[in-house]
């Protein structure tokens, strides 16, 4: 491990030196490589240093041109360009490829300082610093150069009064004045061009929802008088005199035409022969001679009605719904003046379907500490299967995993294959009519699956699943998933004699090959506002409840305590209530750093027909997305020690009926696409009832003293479309050690190869852990 770390450090230093030496290779005599610009604000009054820094960074982001892209402080794209021969125009294929991946040097001579000074000055004026001034100086260091811009904002101008110069007797005047109390322009606030633009858009949006289709934000004029003195301005809102009469009149919806099977031609969107037009529900004209879609289904996603005032909400809702049916390749709508009525719009929807059938093939590689394998997936899709925008998918998969390190054991290798058939309806199939939200399309799903898993020297598992339920979004932040019926049936076969013998040594192994049969509903609720980039604090919560056999077990009087377990279809079924929650908090600490934290709680109650949760429903922790200083399924339950099969043959499959996990991680950007993180994780799982084979595994009042704790650091390579994560972690607290010896800081010995081998855990994963 030490030699590997030394090699990585040496390689990094070599690459850094190589970059530094070659970055100016093709810079001509007298030219300088431009390394970027900085802005230094000279303020008259004291200001919070963070706000000043944020203001400077905002201004600096406007500067042009941008310097060559860097990673770890080195212009890596420039290196590729240099390796491709620089300004050499030869047609060598290797050099052409390298040059294409890179970028030419950005030179000092490319920088127009006067342009940037005006740019910064205009930006400051746009936020109220009318008397701002900007100067600049060039800083040269050898073959490199940067520019320092000194900005003096001076005193800001604020709004003194706001008036509306609008005809209050006209329809449009009344509609604008009716929402003036919602104005974004507030007396006492600083002048801001961005706020003025937003105010014009606010007025336009309000008018759009009242029928003014032809109105636009440019029709609003905000006049500013800055001559009143005392660094204040008066503002006057009016409608421009040149605004057309049509823009001032609300429009009504006329005829609605839908082309569900439209083929886009070379002439663009044009009206086709409408001889086969059909009027549906006295509201919508369909042009679909081949009856590719059921009219009722599409009509449910069109929110306009003939005769109503145009409004932007129904306009956007209809487009969003048609797009999110995932059936159409293109969705286009046009509004045209009706030839029959004044101030009336005829609406045309041109819908171009996606290919009815498609197939996708994927090959995945999987790697872990000592396990490697691959998996292949083939997914066949049938769109608009029953002429109601339904989607049928058939996924066929197969894979294998083998142990490539450590001591080989019975549980070390497998191959698996199976299939899943799914149907999704873009509506709720229910005897009760209810619509959770008109904004989003609810879905009904049915899935049936089968998997065959063969651990070649141990056992075979046949697994069958069936689920039927609903998914819907309440709003942008809240989502619900109600599975009315989930059935899981797992039947073991061909248990080898060697595995049977090992079960006598490690009774936990028997849990894996127990028949499993659970059925019942489950519900999941998800809330998140993490998509709001302007918040300092954002949250994510996912909670759910899973039930199995509850009603049937009560009816049959099932009781494992009295040896009266009941069966369904000849198989003992599980009876439990399982509740879990995943709460995450993200706090911005700066432009490119944050503190991310997670709390996971899982609890359950098994009764009647069950002593504990079935194996597939039990909780576990450890691994790259949990306690990263412990291997997956290697912690707990409670203070129970990990099992071993034979000498040093570690068996990681520790599970429980309860779970508690806490994680916190500081994340920050190093340079370019390279980020880093430092983290601390804690957690464990516990049993509901005493298990003689897992001493110390039952949940007790001392559960906090049984938490496993670890920490570490790692790099994240964020390529926008893909995040590769590496973590190196060590345990801080080991719960199965004797009390008083569980904190292991004193045992950390990076110089010891034995300690590193037993305690350093390296995780390679895709994406963030939470």
Automatic annotation (TrEMBL):
Keyword terms of this UniProt record: Cell outer membrane, Membrane, Signal, Transmembrane
Record localization: Membrane
Keyword Signal attributed: yes
Coiled-coil residue windows: none
All copies of domain Bacterial surface antigen (D15), residue ranges: 394-737
Gene3D superfamilies: membrane protein fhac, membrane protein fhac: a member of the omp85/tpsb transporter family
Name listed for the protein in its UniProt record: BamA/TamA family outer membrane protein
Source organism (scientific name): Sphingobacterium tabacisoli
Lineage of producing organism: Bacteria, Pseudomonadati, Bacteroidota, Sphingobacteriia, Sphingobacteriales
